[in-house]
Amino acid sequence: MNIETKCLHEGWKPTQGEPRQLPIYQSTTFKYDTSDYMGKLFDLEAEGYFYTRLQNPTNDAVAAKLAALEGGVAAMLTSSGQAANFYAIFNICETGDHFIASSSIYGGTYNLFGVTMKKMGIECTFVDQSLPEEELAKYFRPNTKALFGETVTNPTCTVLDFDKFSRLAHSHGVPLIVDNTFATPVKCRPFEWGADIVTHSTTKYMDGQGIGVGGAIIDSGNFDWMKHADKFPGLCTPDESYHGITYAERFGKGAFITKATAQLMRDFGSIQSPQNAFYLNSGLETLAVRMDRHCENAFKVASFLKNDSRIDWVHYADLEGDECHDLAAKFMPKGTCGVLAFAVKGGREKAIKFMDSLNIISIVTHVADAKTCLLHPASHTHRQLTDDQLREAGVAPDLIRLSVGLESAEDIIEDIKQALDKI
Ligand SMILES: *Cc1c(COP(=O)(O)O)cnc(C)c1O
């Protein structure tokens, strides 16, 4: 099946007489006839649902669809993208461990990694992802457990060099974890380029309409934990809190997701509600069609901005001549996403006047949904970062992030034009 078909037919596969649409299993618990069988479920010896914090049929169907879309072996849903990125790292890092992340990542993830996880004794080194491989290699330590980046960075819209990052991760015996929120599996499948684990904020394009906050983790099944058993004791030695199970031995390619579910979801409980999983599934059905249109519209808007004398610069990797164009052409030949970054000439004041003059395009703390919206990270999402941190993250104080939606491209451009006229 091609991706358009998978969006509709993977996941929930009804048989004779079953509902054609994914049912919402709005139940906390599931019933069994014998105490013995319940015991086996708890020992992970029998398969079956018992409590929605651990597994729910609606969520599992959607997770299965995501695994199919990304080309992975297993997946889980989380309550948010934040929870997904936290679990993905915390599943293999404990106190005293270290990991490396691109400094150009989403502000919320930057904060999670740099501030909150630091309090747990896990240290993150943020690196400039454009540095040469030899330079980046110097940041690896004996206790480094993962390398993390975003396919297309939020909000700077730069493209990850998968070749360089996967070589770096694998030559140091650690997995490459990639947040694929902006590209979605429709535009990029990181596993085909060497990533081992993929995360998502499903809140964005996957949901597509700004309905529900959610996240997901998908495992390629490709990383050989046992080969690096000394680095990953959580997966490669018995878990005393779970009947002495050694995940990598018992579950093979499914080890990462099984551990994240049986241990982290059990203890932290950041589940996606079945109702939200249902909404997510509806969004996924049209993801491929929407992503094509997002890219088409963004390309038209980016081309307009590039040729307008009132615009200082525009950053959209699909544009010929963009500094990330070659990477985008290689890893996302059918387009990147609908998000672009640009700056209005005349600094902060003009930027604010411009934003306040827009009619259709709204200023919201959201990105990657059906309605065009924009945001000024320095005064909105990234306001907790210092100027130095902003610069380190590559976020210029005048950067405006524009998320091009599914309206008529002509109307979006008209709205931008009239707002530019007002400054
Ligand atoms: C929004 C976002 C997140 C966080 O996701 P939430 O669903 O808001 O928790 C993580 N990564 C990227 C790239 C994002 O855009």
Task: Produce the secondary structure layout.
Blueprint: H1 3-9, H2 35-42, H3 57-70, E1 74-78, H4 81-90, E2 98-102, H5 107-119, E3 123-127, H6 133-137, E4 144-150, H7 162-171, E5 176-179, H8 184-187, E6 197-201, E7 215-219, H9 233-236, H10 247-251, H11 255-268, H12 274-285, H13 287-306, E8 311-315, H14 325-331, E9 339-344, H15 347-356, E10 362-363, E11 373-375, H16 387-392, E12 400-403, H17 409-421
Parallel strand pairs: 2-3, 2-4, 4-5, 5-6, 10-11
Antiparallel strand pairs: 1-7, 6-7, 8-9, 9-12, 11-12
Helix pairs in contact: 3-12
Bound molecules: pyridoxal-5'-phosphate (PLP).
Ligands (ions, cofactors included): pyridoxal-5'-phosphate
Enumerate how many helices there are, as a single number.
17
SSE pattern: HHHEHEHEHEHEHEEHHHHHEHEHEEHEH
Rg calculated over all Cα atoms:
22 Å
The beta-strand count equals: 12
Can you put this structure into words, describing what you see?
The chain is an alpha/beta fold and 423 residues long. It has 2 domains: 276 residues, Aspartate Aminotransferase, domain 2 (3-Layer(aba) Sandwich), CATH 3.40.640; 134 residues, Aspartate Aminotransferase, domain 1, CATH 3.90.1150. Helix content is 38%, strand content 13%. The strands form 2 sheets. The chain has a 7-stranded mixed sheet, with helices on both faces. Strands 8-9-12-11-10 form a 5-stranded mixed sheet. β5, α8 and β6 form a beta-alpha-beta unit. α3 runs parallel beside α12. The longest helix is centred in the last third of the chain and has 20 residues. The N and C termini lie far apart (50 Å). Bound molecules: pyridoxal-5'-phosphate. The site of pyridoxal-5'-phosphate has 16 residues, from α4 and α5.
